[in-house]
Specification:
This protein has 15 helices and 5 strands. By secondary structure, the chain is mainly α. The chain is globular, with a radius of gyration of 23 Å.
């Protein structure tokens, strides 16, 4: 079927409302719009460059941990959660009680992402994997009693105080298993000669349209993108996440998804998605380059002045790449050193301009690797 002839679905009358029944997508697709081909070629080139560059960075997994933390904060922010990146990398004991619920949602997302990426070694992208990941996502947070790890057995809706004034009503629950089976088959159907980036763009739209869970659909749908990019071999490491792009263009993101359903305009959604791949790949490449440049400046120039302390200082640096906000107790626990040694090392790092003390207190002080953290903050 040509993308331009796509009919997104139809509305079915239920009791007092109409639900949307989406068209199945596990069929051959083609398109006439040359702009899609142009954007697709650039997106493939950019994501290939990102993957090639990240594959040659020593200890890349250390830096990817921060990428995952940022993805968790941005994806959760789209859903209304308010946790900043520097909070996300702290332990729960360092979070104000009023913000602990939002912090827990972000940490669940980090745990869910790490779990699902590791699980790809033994399980393909599938409804089973998404259900297992969803169970982790909803553990101990708002929505934990709304069938975590299971597809919904009741109606949900998007927008509006009640279903009567909802902006969008997904398919009735009795359709979900069939729709998700079609989506899973679409992702794994090697007979379809469809570029991988087009596949996952369409799959993300379809997942959000099905809305198979009672809660957490947005986060699982965005996580699905990275899982597919890794499982399909487009990325050898989970180094690209689109939530930052979607969050910065949140209304356009929602409008383009709805435009497919209302106006059958899959073309505009594909263009928006491919631009996201292009911009995010380029930004990721620049971030990795900046990390390597900063790493060289800090380790080759600043740490080199510490003499006998150098081995311990390097161990602390490796920890800071994972968690760029630390306390003296963190240093003691991670490096297995005494309190005086930890405080001395933190003073050295502060003197060298690597760390900045953020509290102004004499006790319970927090030190931030600001220059590194800024590479991941919103720009």
């Amino acid at each position: 079927m040509k993308i331009e002839d796509f009919k997104s679905g139809r509305y079915l009358q239920q009791y007092q409302y109409k639900s949307f029944s989406p068209t199945r997508i596990n069929i051959p697709w083609s398109w006439a719009d040359g702009k899609i081909n142009t954007l697709l070629a650039e997106a493939n080139r950019k994501i290939g460059a990102l993957d090639a560059f990240s594959s040659h960075i020593p200890d890349i997994d250390i830096f990817i941990e921060m990428h995952i933390a940022k993805e968790a904060t941005q994806s959760s922010k789209i859903e209304g959660t308010r946790t900043e990146l520097e909070e996300a990398i702290k332990s729960d004991s360092d979070i104000a009680p009023v913000r602990i619920d939002d912090w827990q949602e972000v940490h669940n997302y980090i745990e869910a992402m790490n779990f699902s990426i590791k699980k790809l070694n033994t399980l393909p992208v599938s409804t089973r994997l998404l259900k297992e990941t969803h169970k982790i996502l909803m553990k101990g947070v708002r929505g934990e009693h709304r069938n975590p790890g299971e597809f919904r057995t009741s109606q949900n809706w998007i927008g509006g105080a009640t279903i009567k004034d909802a902006l969008y009503i997904p398919p009735v629950h009795t359709e979900i298993n069939d729709l998700m089976s079609d989506l899973e088959n679409f992702l794994h159907n090697d007979q379809l000669e469809i570029p991988l980036l087009i596949k996952i763009a369409m799959a993300h739209y379809q997942f959000e349209t099905i809305h198979p869970f009672l809660d957490g659909n947005g986060r699982i749908g965005r996580l699905l993108i990275t899982l597919y990019l890794v499982s399909s071999g487009l990325l050898s490491k989970p180094s690209l996440y689109l939530s930052d792009y979607f969050e910065k263009h949140r209304q356009i993101y929602y409008d383009n998804l709805e435009r497919v359903r209302v106006k059958n305009d899959m073309t505009q959604w594909l263009k928006f998605f491919l631009v996201g791949i292009i911009e995010t790949s380029e930004k990721g490449n620049n971030t990795f380059k900046s990390i390597l440049k900063l790493k060289e400046q800090v380790e080759d120039r600043k740490l080199a002045t510490l003499g006998k302390k150098l081995p311990t200082a390097k161990s602390l640096m490796n920890y800071l790449y994972r968690k760029p906000v630390v306390t003296s107790q963190d240093v003691q626990d991670v490096l297995k050193v005494s309190s005086p040694t930890a405080n001395s090392l933190l003073s050295d790092f502060e003197r060298l301009g690597i760390l900045n003390e953020k509290t102004g207190w004499k006790r319970n002080r927090e030190f931030e690797f600001t220059e590194y953290l800024n590479l991941f903050r919103d720009k």
